[in-house]
Amino acid sequence: MQRWRGLEHLPSGWGRCVVTIGVFDGVHRGHQQLIGHAVRLASHHRLPCVLMTFDPHPAEVVRPGSHPAQLTTLRRRAELVEELGVDVFCVLPFTLETSRLPADEFVHEILVDKLHASAVVVGENFTFGHRAAGTVELLRTLGDRFGFVTQRASLLGDGAGGGSATDGFGKVVYSSTYIRACIDAGDVAAAAEALARPHRLEGIVVRGDGRGRDLGFPTANLATTKFAAVPADGVYACRFIRRIDGVDRSLPAAVSVGTNPTFSGRERRVEAFVLDVDEDLYGQRVALDFVARLRGMEKFDSSEALVERMRLDVEQTRALLA
Question: Which of 14, 176, 177, 243 has the most Cβ atoms closer than 10 angstroms to its Cβ?
Answer without folding.
Answer: 176
